[in-house]
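Hey all, quick one. A colleague (J.T.) asked me to put the alpha-D-galactopyranose job into the tracker so the inputs and the structure tokens live in one place instead of scattered across chat threads. No bug as far as I know, just bookkeeping. Sequence used:
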Amino acid sequence: MTEDRIRNAADEREAALEMRLAFREIFGEEADGVVFAPGRVNLIGEHIDYNGGHVFPCALTLGTFGAYRRRDDCVMRFHSLNFAGDGIIVSAIDTMEEEPREDWTKYTKGVVWAFGQKGHPVGSGFDFLCCGTIPNKSGLSSSASLEVCMGTALMEMFGPDGVDQVENALIGQLAENRFVGLNCGIMDQFASANGKKDHAILLDCATLDYRHVPLDLSGAKLVIINTNKPHELVDSAYNERRAECEKALELLRAERPELSALCELTPEEFDAMEGLLSETKVRDRARHAVYEEARTRRGAEALRRGDLTAFGQYMNASHVSLRDLFEVSCRELDVLAETAWDTPGVIGARMTGGGFGGCTVNIVEEDAVEGFIERVGRKYLETIGYEASFYVVTAGDGAHRVD
Ligand code: GLA
């Protein structure tokens, strides 16, 4: 199958060639070009993008390929090699808003819609073929990568003034928030749009200032483990956590009216004020956000000076906080992280992304990787009853044209 050939392609150019062949077969015309937008893994800084904090993700080399061709009318035709059974989904720029948002095209239509909302109306219709290589429902941002992929294809086709990859990330987030209906922060789309090979991105979500930090692991490896837990949409729990953080902020403003986000507080300031938060749950959520911000800044600094051991400890502490205070972990993620912590050669391990399933991210010494996979895999199967999947990954580039 073409989908497998793209997933297993030796490099991006080979994948792009497959995309072009598939495009011709499906739409009967030559594609104008092929783009790629990656998924992401977050190293530290979880659930604080919407609290004005810093996050530290990196883009992956897995992601979504998109082949496109501009049309002269206002018809949009979409096809996904991952949902080939859905066939070609036909829409139009002037009718898409009223159409049901049930299939995968809510993401791509949402991006076209968001371009318009942001003052860059898309000038004509187009044909768009995509293929994702991110393992299904793994929490590695397949939807953000699809949004950023669509946005990058629109940038190539229509070259709207003022749309760069920062704006493209904001457009993707707007699509997700207002067209798809998940109230996510900016991290996933930003990492997909602005990643850099062999680097992580230290992003200040309050200002969108960012810095690429070399991901120098001194020979250690980045290993992602997928729980393979059937990952139900956890939108309601996600939106609930956001609301609890907003409530905490509101209460803290009684003493500090100028506060605009939880992550503006230092841990010391928070400790002195936490009495204002009488509800345990609200206090715990806020405590996580404030301390996670401190861990992220200190962690990125530790990595910059080559102190991998300190970085690993911040990762572990982040997991504990997400488990006990923010309560977005689950048994599957805990078994993976906790087993990793007492496996030789592991520098750090934590859940990554929104939580409730999805993946953990681990830094493991190179010569320990094989034993790590064997031990954690066995323990997971014994305890949970089905297998986890392991991926040894590297940080890849943000969205770009492939050919
Ligand atoms: C999801 C959201 C992000 C971020 C993470 C948690 O991935 O899309 O915006 O909030 O959860 O850090």
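Adding what we noticed when we looked at it: The radius of gyration is 21 Å. The first strand starts at residue 33 and ends at 42.
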